[in-house]
Amino acid sequence: MVIGASGKTGRHVVAGLVSRGATVRAASRTPEQLDAPGADPTRFDWHDESTWGPALETVDGVYLVKPESSDVVEVVGRFLGAMKAVGAARLVFLSESATQTRSDDITERHVERVVEASGLQWTILRPSWYMDDIVDAEFFGSMVRDDRIIVMTTGGSATAWIDARDIADVAAEILVNGGEVGRALDLTGPEALTLDQLAERITAAAGDPVKGVEESVLEAKSRMRAEGLDEGFVAYMTRIVESIVAGDTATVTGEVERVTGRPPRNIDAFLAEHAAQLRPVREVKSELDAEYANQLARENEALFRRQISAWARNDLDDLIDCYTDDMVYTDMPFADQQVRGKAAFREYMAGYNALFAGSQVEVEIVTLVASSANVVGELLCRARYVGTGAPEGGVPVEWYATLVDTIVGRKIVSEHAYFDPTAFDKAVEQTAT
After folding, report:
1. Is the pTM above the cut of 0.85?
2. What DSSP element (H or E) covers 285?
């Protein structure tokens, strides 16, 4: 069973296991949304332990990506117990670089200790920083493309970047062919690069200068706090950058080649493969002639109207089809609670629409502005609110919302929703008085 089967490494682990002839359960909260050829999409939810037993039935081994949870140590501990109960003895656990340098009471090391004490046939993977993060909009992608910089805290130390596909190949090889029991493997790419060297490699692939910008630990903390990130996350990221500064990520290992029989992918090949994602949005847009730009704007407007219509009538299939698989949705009043991926967004919207009678919303598009890459729409929404605090039969509610969509390839890749979250409480209060 592969937990996190739609994730950065999990989707490649599934493919690697299938190619090696394994019978694979691709685990997800919404298995119907998975694209996992040759695998068995299986419902699994970290927060619903009733799904664990059925998902683990007849399973021999598990690829485990730990959940994002405040009680992650306890949750993983209970899951390992469930594995033992059904006889699933083999475990490959995805951890992270340099956890062995941290004390046992630090969460990421504490989870490893639980794995080590589980009595299972475990292997821990500690990969260096993913190459994939360079083009990922949630990490460095946006700043590289749009600002032509990459900001890191390194103290001059190097990082041995690794392709997520190499991590997945190691995991698949161990799960199918065994070995490495009771070991923690430090996985890296074939070379370690300083920030300046990394910027030079990105520049060569992008065809346009990209500058490395060094940020101190204190500056990084201040920036994260200014962005509204909670102290737990700030502390976690600080541990990561302190590991880089200490030189913990600079060592190149041969573990990928030793386990898989082939050398890991180098960063130049990765950047060449993803060169289009390194180019500035403004550069791409400048290549569009006026007619094509207008055509894209019209298509994007039509896509926006389609998504609003689908939402209003609670047609989640049609709504979800408007987005890319790796879409990101943000309710701006709660910017720290982003929804990532189509499966999570479907679940989120189903819960949101359930706040209204018949899951129906009447929507009027007040203002709409579309371009070749973005749509901004102001909406007037009306519904009968039946959520928390509403009287029997619900209460009429009216609110304005503004959506800002970024669209690539006729699909929405990110959406930011601005609205007053107190509108529903105010409607309930007015009814009560």
Report:
1. no
2. helix 281-286
